[in-house]
Every structure is written in structure tokens, then in C-alpha cells.
Amino acid sequence: xxxxxxxxxxxxxxxxxxxxxxxxxxxxxxxxxxxxxxxxxxxxxxxxxxxxxxxxxxxxxxxxxxxxxxxxxxxxxxxxxxxxxxxxxxxxx
Length: 93
Hints:
The structure is a single chain. By secondary structure, the chain is α+β, with helices and mostly antiparallel strands. It has helices at residues 31-56, 60-73, and strands spanning 5-16, 19-30, 78-82, 86-92. Strands 2-1-4-3 form a 4-stranded antiparallel beta sheet. It is elongated and about 65 Å long.
């Protein structure tokens, strides 16, 4: 199953006269809207990609399957980036 949502959490620190302050930002991104917007482009490009696969002698069905498996493997991906100034966390689900 392809990921339908992304949760992004950003925490950063700033220095002020009162001391070090922590700031947080939490975003929920609906990826299913992105998939809906990309669907017409995908439907138009599938025959073009199949023709290109015929020209370079690549099995188009195996290519489509590999791309689908890569997109499906993105589900439950967690990316964390930590630095002295900020922390970023992205979770696909």
C-alpha cells in the first residue's frame, strides 16, 4: 500500500536575552491528494513509457511492478535529522 499521509515535526532552538527557547512545528500532510493529482499524469504517461520500454527492450510490466513495490515500501518510513540547532522528523504512513 502506498503512503497516504506524512507527519512532519520540526523542533528548533533560538537564543534570546531570556535564554535558549524551544519552538515546535507539527504538520500533517495528506499525500493521498498528491496521488489523486498525479493519477491523470500517470495514465497519460503509461503508454509512452510502455513504448519506450519496447524500444530499449525492457519488460514494461516488470518496470511497473518495480515502481509500485518501491512506492509501497515507503510506507512506515521514518526519517530523523538531528543537528545542534534543529531536529526534523518525517513519518510516512
